[in-house]
Each structure stands twice: as C-alpha cells, then as structure tokens.
Amino acid sequence: MKPWVILPGRVFYSLIFIVASLNHFSRTTIAFASSHNVPMASVLVPLSGVLAFAGGVSILLGYKARWGAGMLIVFLIPVTAMMHNFWTVADPFAHEIQVTMFLKNLSMLGGAIELLYYGAGPLSLDNLCGLARAPGQRGGSVNGGYI
C-alpha cells in the first residue's frame, strides 16, 4: 500500500474532533452536559474541548500523534459513557439516536487506540522530525518508525 493513503485518513479522522471541540465552550453545550448529570460541567466541558482540539490537531499534523491519540482516548471514554448512555433513554427514537452516537464514539475510540499503537504514519511531522517509532517500541526511532 502507498504511504500517502494514511494522510487523508488522519485528516478526515481529526476533523470531527477539531470542529466539534469549538462547541464545548458554548453555554448551550455546557447546559446540555449538565442535563446529562455531568459533574462540574462548566469546567469539564471546556476542558474536554481542549483535549479534543489538541488531540485532533496533533493527529492532523502527525506531531506527537500518539500523545494526541491518548488525549482523544481520555476524552472519548467519559464522553461516550455520560453523554450517550442509551440504556437510560426511554423514548424509542432518542434511544436509537443514542445507540448510534455511542457506537460512533466506540469506533472513534478504536481509531484512537490504533493511532496510539501505530503512530501517525510516514507522512507526518513525527516521521519528519525523527520522532516516529515502530509499533510497541518505547522511545527512539527504527527505520523512521516503520519496519
């Protein structure tokens, strides 16, 4: 497979986090999170926006992408459990929407876990700066990070 195909995948994956993170600073989003019993929503919702934005930009650029993936994992786990808890929704239509949103977040969590393991790929700032490493390797670089 050609190494360039990883770049658009990273771009497309990161966009939802970057774009959606901007809403995390609105009163409407904070109030919505409060209605889902998010504790300290006025603090945690903007903080989650920072995590989503920083993680998304990190993956977009491929710079410290494993750290960015870690930020997205830290973001996705509580957001998925608290905001898309379909098991508490009685209305059938709202239940289906929340199931879909829950599964969407699980798929994004899976992508973040893969990025955490494999890194950003050959067309990344990590690789350009010599920060890339082989999957599972700690520190340093092996063959530009790709075996």
What count of domains describes the coordinates?
A: 1
Count all strands and give the number: 0
Tally of contiguous helical segments: 6
Average per-residue pLDDT, rounded, comes to 90
Amount of beta strand: under 5%
The secondary structure category is mainly alpha
Q: Give the termini separation.
A: 14 Å
- Computed Rg: 17 Å
Q: What can be said about the biggest beta sheet?
A: none
Percent in helix: 55-70%
Low-confidence stretches: 141-147
The global form is: elongated
Query: H/E order of the elements?
Result: HHHHHH
Task: Provide an overview of this structure.
The protein is built from six helices and no strands. The protein is 65% helix and 0% strand. The chain has helices at 6-21, 27-35, 41-61, 65-83, 92-118, 125-128. It is elongated.
